[in-house]
Amino acid sequence: MKLKSRGEMVFEISNYILLSVIMAACLLPLLNIAAKSFSSEAYVLAGEIFIWPKGFTAAAYEIVLGSRRFWDSFGNTVFITVVGTALNTMLTIFAGYALSRKRLRGQNLIMFMFIFAMLFSGGIIPTYLIVKEIGLLNSLWALIIPGMVAPFNMIIMRLYFYNIPDSMEESAKIDGASNFKILFSIMIPLAMPSIATISLFYAVEYWNNYFDALIYINKHSLFPLQVYLREIIINASSADINNLDLMMNTAQESVRGATVVAATLPILLVYPFLQKHFVKGVMLGAVKQ
Predict the structure, then answer these.
(1) How far apart are CA 40 and CA 157, in angstroms?
(2) Which residues make Cβ contacts (< 8 Å) with residue 250, sequence separation at least 6?
(3) 218 Cβ partners below 8 Å, 6+ apart?
(4) Rounded to an integer, what is the distance from CA 24 to the centroid of its chain?
(5) Which of 31, 39, 182, 184 could anchor a disulfide with 51, C-beta 3.0 to 4.6 Å?
(6) Over the chain (289 residues), what is each successive 10-residue block's mean pLDDT?
(7) Contacts (Cβ under 8 Å, ≥6 apart) of 255
(8) Of the candidates 43, 25, 26, 27, which has an alpha carbon nearest to the alpha carbon of residue 254?
(9) Does the global pTM surpass 0.85?
C-alpha cells in the first residue's frame, strides 16, 4: 500500500474542509426553511428555529397544499418541464448527431453559428419582440420554444457521438440500416449517459424557470411554480387561502417555508435516479480521443 506524502495529505484534508464548508452553506438554509415550515407560530416568531422544528405542526403544508393557485402553478411547471425537456433533448440529440458526422457539409459553419449564438445572444428586447410577433405571449410555449436547443448541451452530445467509431456506423450500413435506424438503435443506446445528463440539465432549468415567465406571462393561471413562490415570499396572504382560521394561527414564515419545500422537493427526488449517469455522461462527452 503506497503511503501518501505530506503534501498529498494536506491537499486531501483541505479538499474535505472546503467541500464541507460548501455543503454546509448549501444545506443549512434549506434545513432552516424546512424546520420553520414544520414549527408552530410561537417558536417561529420568537426566532428559536435553526435546523430542527419546535412545536411540530403541518398546518403550513395544509395551507399550501389546499391552495388552488399552488396546484395550478405546479401543473404548469410539470407541463413545461416534461414537454420542454422531451423536445429539447430530442432536438439536441438530432443536432449533436448530425454535427458529429464528418460527411455533413458546412459542419464548421453551423458549429460557428451555434457557438456565436451561445456567446452573443440577441438580448431581452429583440427576443421579446419575436415572441410577441409569433403570438406566444401569455402562453406556456413562450417558455419552451425560444430555447429549444442549448448550444452547450448540444456540444456535449456532439462530442459523445464524435467519439463513437465510424466503423460501427459503416458496418450497420453494410447490413442495410438506414440513418434513422442507426441513430435510434445504435447511437442513442450508446449515448444514454450523456442523454441522461442533458435531460437533467434541461429539467432543472425548466423547473427553476423564473425570469422568462415574468417577461412573457401576465395571467396568474399560467404562472409557473417559481413565480408563484416569489409572490408567496413577498406576501404569504396572496396564496389563495381557503382556511383563513388556519392561516391566522400560522406564521407567514412557516407558509413561505412550506411553499419552498413543496416547490423544491419534486426536482430533488428526480436527481438520485439520474445521478449514476450524471458524472459519467459529462466526462465522456468532454474527453476527445
Answers:
(1) 49
(2) 41, 57, 59, 60, 63
(3) 137, 138
(4) 22
(5) 31
(6) 76 92 90 87 82 84 82 90 93 90 84 85 84 88 87 86 82 83 86 84 86 87 85 67 63 80 80 67 53
(7) 60, 63, 64, 232, 236, 239, 247
(8) 43
(9) no
